[in-house]
């Protein structure tokens, strides 16, 4: 007899947990069954395709070539079949399974037949193989390409850069060195050495905030200069605010000023911080010019926030780029409020810092994080803890090791839906560009781009 506790909440019948636990495996069992059927059918129709597929997969694994190379054996097999004729191909495909089934039936009816005549059976098998080689080459290449595509979908990459990637890398490096950092939807900060493609972000992603983190101010200034160059070529208003009043602030602002002058863009400098930045920022936004300001972090952060808040309250979009450097000298809460105003005002906010604590505090407010140059253990652990979830498991440790092994000139883009490590920054260089040294002693080139260069 079933008893109930007085006043207790009665629950309905619960479903068996075994039924729910078995559901995730039904799809894998179905896939395994279909694969078995396909393998048996392949052994019956074109048995030579199985070893050809295994050989092609082994060559792909050892050489680390991209799956596109499998088009060569596929086209070779199709061309061979076309040259032989459709009649010969259909006759061969029909004769192979018939001979195989007859041999199996004879072995089933007379088992001692195979040991008595091994040479005849082997010769028959060899005759099948060389006749089915064209179809097996095409089917094996197609099957190997399908398996390589499935590995690519699972993220099993690591291909060797080929001739196309080397050509693309050489071309894009020259474009970036000449200041051609504009892409179709945004800007390029460097290139991917594996594929040779440009590595960057869109302006829509930059409006949600981009955090530049690193230990060398020169590495951060080079990436920020590439973003500012793209904004100038797009005729966006560029507002450069530096909270660091040291030598690095003057060098960074001087690089942006030289770049704007070479592109023929007017530059205004803010000499009076109290109230002067608001007027200068409004003029720069209306004229789509460049404004440079450096000073105490408290007053600068408040005035820039007031300008963006004024635009947001009136529903106005500035179509501008706001570059903030020396964020470690400012209050992270103020900078977080400043980053939050980017999407509503059409302002791409680029904040750079060399402090691990500041980077950890701002990583939650920025949509994208770009880690530049060699970083120490503290910055690596703080950024991986702030940007990558704790349940990411092996991926979190893998990207943490990639950040720890990052070399000078490299950067890693960490976003909410992707992590792109190993990108190379290309400094904007010209023959007439002078060089200045930062705090770390590293030489960096101040660009002077010809005024005739335009947007791509």
Category by helix and strand content: alpha/beta
Radius of gyration: 32 Å
Number of separate structural domains: 2
- The total count of helices amounts to 19
- Reported by name, the CATH topology of the largest domain is Rossmann fold
Strand order of the largest sheet: 5-6-4-7-8-3-9-10-11
Task: Give the beta-strand count.
Answer: 13
What is the CATH homologous superfamily assignment of the largest domain?
P-loop containing nucleotide triphosphate hydrolases
Sequence stretches where pLDDT stays below 50 over 5 or more residues: 1-22, 430-456
* CATH-level-2 architecture of the largest domain: 3-Layer(aba) Sandwich
Identify the overall geometry: elongated
- Terminus-to-terminus distance: 83 Å
Helix share, percent: 40-55%
**Biggest sheet details:** 9 strands, mixed
Write down the overall mean pLDDT: 76
The proportion of residues in beta strands is 5-15%
The CATH class name of the largest domain reads Alpha Beta
In short:
The protein is α/β, with parallel strands linked by helices. The chain has helices at residues 17-22, 24-45, 49-63, 71-84, 86-109, 113-116, 118-131, 133-153, 163-177, 203-207, 217-233, 247-262, 276-287, 297-313, 332-340, 342-345, 356-363, 377-387, 394-404, and strands at 186-191, 198-202, 210-214, 237-242, 267-269, 290-294, 320-325, 347-353, 368-372, 410-414, 419-424, 435-437, 443-445. It folds into two domains: 21-150, no CATH class; 166-445, P-loop containing nucleotide triphosphate hydrolases (Rossmann fold).
